């Protein structure tokens, strides 16, 4: 090691480190081969940190979790991808099916309840991003499923179909704004990571416009975009569970190039 790092204190192991919070403002690198990562005023070896990866829904550098159990993000991504894929096909009017009521079960229990529980598990893992995303979208799916349950009387409360379309449009606009805020946290992550939120956000806004204008073409377009978003979710799910021990191939993270000042 060169002399410029001779006075560097050796980082402690990941088991002794407190979780790195996402409000750190600067990430720089040092060492002959950029083997050190400097986050704020803390220095770590690269191999002691988890990098941005869709398979763990981790948008930046964090310490390895102390929890010895499995990767809950893979389950959360599976819930999201499966439910979004089915909903996208309905909105795209695939096979002439226009009513999404048959997906109430998967929306409430798989995309909703199970995804929400996956978010709670990520809370215990210290993954704030995954916790926020999974619990939020899990709640979205439960809400969407409940809207389509006739006994709840949510849709029947609107006697004017135009008012119903506008109300559903407002509902989707709110989720589009939330998704956009989450999207801004993925610009330093990986390409599949960012593409998932770009397509999901686009889908929310296009479908909101479809409901508020009554455009069938926009409705179909929004459904197609949701299917693409679901495929990104499936990519992340496979990336989160595939290893060299259970698969002949693993998926690359495909990191987005970052611009930073190199500190030596």
Question: How would you describe what is shown here?
Answer:
The chain has 264 residues and is mostly helical. It folds into 2 domains: 3-50, no CATH class; 72-241. Helix content is 51%, strand content 6%. The protein has helices at residues 72-91, 104-125, 128-147, 161-183, 191-213, 216-241; strands spanning 27-30, 36-39, 42-45, 49-50, 62-63. A 3-stranded antiparallel β-sheet has the order 1-2-3, with no helix packed on it. β1 (27-30) and β2 form a beta hairpin. The protein starts with 26 loop residues before the first strand and ends in a 23-residue tail after the last helix.
Describe the protein's topology:
Elements: E1 27-30, E2 36-39, E3 42-45, E4 49-50, E5 62-63, H1 72-91, H2 104-125, H3 128-147, H4 161-183, H5 191-213, H6 216-241
Antiparallel strand pairs: 1-2, 2-3, 4-5
Helix pairs in contact: 1-2, 1-3, 1-6, 2-3, 4-5, 5-6
GO molecular function: acetate transmembrane transporter activity
Membrane topology: Multi-pass membrane protein
Pfam families: Gpr1_Fun34_YaaH
Biggest sheet strand line-up = 1-2-3
Provide the low-confidence segments as ranges.
Answer: 1-25
The outline comes out as elongated
Alpha-carbon Rg, integer: 21 Å
pLDDT averaged residue by residue? 82
Find the count of extended strands (DSSP E, 2+ residues).
5
Q: Find the structural class using helix and strand composition.
A: mainly alpha
Largest sheet properties: 3 strands, antiparallel
Strand content: 5-15%
For the record, the count of structural domains works out to 2
What's the SSE pattern?
EEEEEHHHHHH
- Rounded to the nearest angstrom, the distance between the terminal CA atoms is 12 Å
Helical content class: 40-55%
Family: Belongs to the acetate uptake transporter (AceTr) (TC 2.A.96) family.
Membrane topology: Multi-pass membrane protein
InterPro entries: AceTr, Gpr1/Fun34/SatP-like
Subcellular location: Membrane
